[in-house]
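Listing S7. Sequence submitted for prediction.
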Amino acid sequence: MMRGVITERDFEECECAFPGIVRYYRELKVKPETFLELLWSFIQQERPRCEPVQVASRPARSASAR
């Protein structure tokens, strides 16, 4: 179980919990300040990107309706 400050000494345990995270960290040009930031970006990059959805514009309201 991970507790407290996580450093590079904990990478073996991190890799067991999140396979690929150590390679991902080493390839980053700008390193995150916390493990949580690293984890968020690692999980986000694994998720498939959704296609953007067009949002319909709202109908104009008359000044008297406000």
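Caption to Listing S7: primary sequence and predicted structure tokens for the chain studied. DSSP finds three helices and no strands in the chain. Residues 8-48 form one domain.
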